[in-house]
Amino acid sequence: MWRLDTLKSVSYSEGLDRLELPTCPEPMLIPPSSRRRARRGTHLPCALLFALLLSTAFLHGLSLWDHSPAKAEVPQTGQTDPAGEITPQSVIERAKTLVDAREMDTAVDLLNQFIASSPTEYLDHAYLLMAAALSGRNEHAEAISYLDQLLNEFPTSDLVGRARIMLGAEYAQMGNLDAALPVLAEARSLSPDPQTQREALEQIGEIQVRKGDFVRAIQAWLDEFTLAPQEQRAEIHERIQSLVQVKIEKKDLLRLRDIYPTAFPGDVALIRLIELHTARGEEHLAERNIRIFLNRFPAHAYAATASDTLRAFKERLKASQYVIAAVLPLSGRMAPFGTDSLNGIRLALEKAKETLGPNSVGLLVKDSVTDRTLLRSQLADLASEYHPLAVVGPLLSRDLQAVAAFAEEAEIPFITPAATLPDVRRHGSFLFSTALTYPLQIHRIADFAVTQRGHHRFCVLYPDTAYGQDLARLFIAEVRLRGGEVIAVESYKETDTDFGPQIKRLKAEDLKRHGRTHSVKIGKGVTRVLYRPGFDAIFLPGDYSQIALIAAQLAFYDVNVPLLGSNGWNSPDLLRLADRWVEGGVFVDGFFLDSRDANVQDFVERYRRRYQSNPSLFSALAYDAAWLVVDAIRSGATSGKAIRDHLLKLQELPTLGGPAEFGPGGVLHRPVFLIQVKHGQFVQLD
Questions:
Q1: Rounded to an integer, what distance in angstroms lies between the CA atom of residue 305 and that of residue 311?
Q2: Which terminus of the chain is more solvent-facing, meaning fewer CB atoms within 10 Å of its CB: N or C?
Q3: Residue closest to 288 by CA, chosen among 348, 227, 366
Q4: DSSP character at residue 343
């Protein structure tokens, strides 16, 4: 039997006497595809020597044939014919003994002579033994050639299943895992022998582990489990359990949890998830998986431990001096944004505990992805049990409006880090927003363009989406409010890649007012009409991938003016896609990863250490929301109403971007970062 960990033959007859054969002069390994059709008499001297030794040998079966049907077995005695010549059976038996005794060189010599003699019987056995001997000498490519020859010349042989198992192992030993898998799949599906099927499945699982596809490895081993005798199943079960507990990370654990909801190894995956989240301090995720586990496996041996862990979470949270709740989308399509936000909140509270003490502030986490009516009742239950001073969340404007009445009744401030409502206070006096709203973006970019750069004439090219429409409308109003002029406005579909028609219309409208053209001779008898824009800059709200295309096409049509943008520009991919076409462009955002500000850099460094990734805008805005609550607690606020009053009265609230204050609409008038593309990099403008 060959295993992927060693890929070496296992001796089944270590107690046998090991016979030494004289070596024929200059032995030569002959590929099976070019076997010599020699007459039997050609090798008579060696054959006679073999006969003298083989006549005294006890010959034993090799493991290669252990699981083949009975008719594939070779006679167990080294008989000779009446003329005294060695028989094919005796040579094969001798070769089997040599391979089993790991005398590979001698076995290769013997089998080389046998194959060269063009036998009519047991040639398939010889190929298989030759492959085993060559594998033992680490000559895997040569072993593969003999196995291929066996499969091609003897497709109906009873050794085909064993040959496929060996072939898969040889490919795997050479690192060609993608070639090994289909061969083993054939061995599993085409062989009638259950043991061959089990060995194929075991090797398939081991190869999938090497490829990092742990879920498929487990699926293969579970199939092996169903075929195995009862006494062998414990080893397979332990193999799967060890893989889940030691190697598999969160993503695959979640897949196993969902693929096997009420059966092994779904239970082991859930237990591992609970342990991982608990170790990382992600008690809300550990709690969620504990509840799933207790619902799916109520009679499991781990159920008592799970219940105790859940109880300990509750007791620890209730022991906190103050509780802050986070209501965020932690499942569904919005989960990545909710997770980023939660990471920012946790980072703020961890920093607060450094000065307030380890039991000062506890975090209660609730997934906002649920029925809105149910969300309100769940919040009421949580408020009754844990009495949170404030809630960070939800992210969406519609969810914030849904909890407004509850916030008012419970007198608990809700601070959204992402809802872009320009006025949250009209829905309730306990609603606040630290989000980067559209008016905040537009106020900053328009102030920069008109006040700082002295631009007065603008064009606008925006995506025909709610985001693009709102930003374009606000920009036009802000420019006019500051005494500027908007020359032309055009929109495009999100799926557009050719913006030539829109750019031509912008130029045509500009030429009616301030734009000019002039002719330039570029060759003998050849002139070109050049366009000189009459406007100072163009506002391009939109996604970075769209901006990259638009910027290049603006240059093609001679629209060489400064580019102004929104936070949709803020991606490293813009620099890669747009290259020099966006050089000098300026955009705004609520967070800049490479800001020189000490507060921002401290936040970024802490975040990277804690989560091994960069913080996003959602992380930063949620951090600010949680830190404002911490600031209120440090100032003496001990109730929701006191926190609300603290947020309303202070004009220099601490945020990552600098001092800020809440406006009449409940939106934080936060500093907005001004970012320029300079020498192919994003640079913060002072």
A1: 10
A2: C
A3: 366
A4: H
β-bridge mates for residue 101, sequence order:
none
C-alpha span between 395 and 69 (Å, rounded): 66
Distance CA 630, CA 634 (A): 6
3-class DSSP state for residue 185? helix
How far is the C-alpha of 106 from the C-alpha of 205, rounded, in Å?
A: 34
* pLDDT band, very low/low/confident/very high, at 59 (cuts 50, 70, 90): very low
Residue in 70, 71, 106, 69 with CA at minimum distance from that of residue 91: 106
Q: How far apart are CA 471 and CA 476, in angstroms?
A: 9
How far is Cα 61 from Cα 96, in angstroms, rounded to an integer?
Answer: 7
Whether residue 394 has a cis bond before it, omega within 30° of 0: yes
Helices 640-649 and 617-634: angle between axes, nearest 10 degrees: 110
What the block records as the tokens of 659 is 């001092």
Measured over the CA atoms of residue 204, residue 207, residue 211 and residue 212, the dihedral's sign is positive
Judge residue 124's burial from the number of C-beta atoms within 10 Å of its C-beta, 0-12 exposed, 13-18 middle, 19 or more buried: buried
- Tens of pLDDT along 266-294? 999 999 999 999 998 889 999 999 999 99
pLDDT in tens, 173-200: 999 999 999 999 999 999 999 999 999 9
CA trace torsion 629, 670, 576, 602 (10° rounding): -50
Distance CA 93, CA 77 (A): 8
428 vs 652: CA distance, rounded Å:
23
Instruction: Tell me whether strands 563-565 and 668-669 are parallel, antiparallel or unpaired.
Output: unpaired
For residues 184 and 224, give the distance between their C-alpha atoms in angstroms, rounded to a whole number: 13
Is the pLDDT confidence value at 9 over 60?
Answer: no
Quote the pLDDT of residue 667: 97
Q: Amino acid identity of 86? A: I
Say if CB 220 and CB 205 are below 8 A apart: yes
What's residue 73's pLDDT? 43
Planar angle of CA 421, 425, 427, nearest 5 degrees: 80
Cβ neighbours of residue 72 closer than 8 Å, sequence gap 6 or more: 65, 157, 158, 159
**622 phi/psi in degrees, rounded to 5:** -70, -35
As given in the structure block, the two tokens for residue 120 are 């009519």
Tokens read off for 343 = 């990471």
- pLDDT for residue 363 is more than 60: yes
Give the model's pLDDT for residue 522.
Answer: 77
Q: How many angstroms separate the CA atoms of 305 and 394, rounded? A: 33
296 has a pLDDT exceeding 60: yes
One-letter amino acid for residue 211 of the chain: K
Rounded to whole angstroms, how far apart are CA atoms 625 and 391? 9
User: What DSSP string describes 591-622?
Assistant: --TT---HHHHHHHHHHHHHHSS---HHHHHH
pLDDT for the residue numbered 111: 96
Question: Is the separation of the CB atoms in 6 and 12 below 8 Å?
Answer: no
Question: Torsion angle, CA of 488/491/497/503, rounded to 10 degrees?
Answer: -10
The pTM of this model reads 0.76
Give dist(CA 430, CA 390) in Å, integer. Answer: 10
How far is Cα 608 from Cα 643, in angstroms, rounded to an integer? Answer: 30
